[in-house]
Amino acid sequence: MVEEIIYSAAHGVAQIRISRADKKNALTASMYAALADAIVRAEADSAVRAIVILGSQGAFTAGNDLQEFLQDPPIGLDRPVYRFMAALAGAEKVVIAGVAGLAVGIGTTLLLHCDLVVAGLGARFSLPFVNLGLVPEFASSLLLPQLIGRQLAGKHLLLAEPFDAATALAYGIVSEVVDNAEVDTVALEWASRVAAKAPGAVRETKRLLKPDALLIAQRITAEATVFSAQLSSQEAREALSAFVEKRAPRFDV
Ligand code: COA
User: Fold this and answer.
1) Beta-carbon count within 10 A of 26 CB
2) Is-contact 137 127, C-beta < 8 A?
3) Using CB atoms within 10 A as the burial measure, which of 12, 37, 90, 103 is most buried?
4) Does any domain span residue 103?
């Protein structure tokens, strides 16, 4: 089977690449498990000083696999997606994301937990949870309004409006915007620069820059309860079935 999460490490930098191009890098439970393992592995490797997460073939990720949401909904904090996001949110090493193309759902959410993000000019971000009968997750209901204010967060979490790279830069979700073809190179170059710096100072600076970990953990748990309830709801089943059946959802029945 083709590897969908590819891990490599060299010269102080761990690289994690999402590679499921035929499904726009949509993430399945086994991919989340591999992502969690990759972060844990990089954190445990004393030779690694920075971690880079990249997409492939024009997509960062189209978010959670919607077919899987329908067939095997991730209910319960022991599921691989929670393990991955806990590893990411708790990482002590610097995590850099390179977004060339689509970053949908958790693809945008996870950026809020990264330390540096480089996006391509064609990157497109969205948090379409309400369109799917779902709610924000992994502390995005806390971190996004903190970053951009509640009214702008409402545009993206209540109206589910997508936004482009320039907007993401203005919001502070992204550190820099470059040509699409340069995204991976810039992300890896930043990681090399981090890897060459005093590791103790980098680790402590990251820790000081990060928002309150306890507050984030509490919000993740609170959101998970609502998310799980919504995932089992009739409206979510209608929205997810509509995606699979390639039709518009109906919420009036
Ligand atoms: N889960 C499962 N399959 C997905 C997927 C997802 N999140 N996103 C894309 N795919 C699949 C499509 O079903 C399609 O599969 P098929 O070729 O077997 O029909 C393939 O990936 C290509 O997607 P397609 O929709 O043809 O590409 P596009 O460029 O026209 O649109 C998206 C891309 C991402 C805008 C669109 O696929 C989409 O809206 N996906 C759902 C995103 C989403 O809601 N994610 C969850 C957020 S919580």
Assistant:
1) 25
2) no
3) 103
4) yes
Choosing from 18, 19, 22, 24 the residue with most ligand 1 atoms within 8 A of its CB, the one to mutate for a pocket test is: 24
The single-letter DSSP state of residue 182 is: G
Is residue 238, in this structure, part of any structural domain at all? no
Q: DSSP per residue over 91-156, as a string?
A: --SEEEEEE-SEEETHHHHGGGG-SEEEEETT-EEE--TGGGT----TTHHHHHHHHH-HHHHHHH
79 alpha carbon – ligand 1 mean position (Å): 22
- Residues spanned by the domain of 105: 5-180+199-205
Does 193 reside within a domain? Answer: no
pTM: 0.97
141 inside domain: yes
For the stretch 168-200, pLDDT in tens is: 999 999 999 999 999 999 999 999 999 999 999
So what's the pLDDT on residue 187?
Answer: 98
Which atom of ligand 1 has the smallest separation from the CA of 59?
Answer: 34
Length of the chain: 253
What is the count of structural domains for the chain? 1
* Closest CA to ligand 1's atom 2: 65
Look at residue 101 in the predicted model and tell me its pLDDT: 96
Q: Tokens 């209910």 map to which residue?
A: 75
What CATH number does the domain containing 20 carry?
A: 3.90.226.10
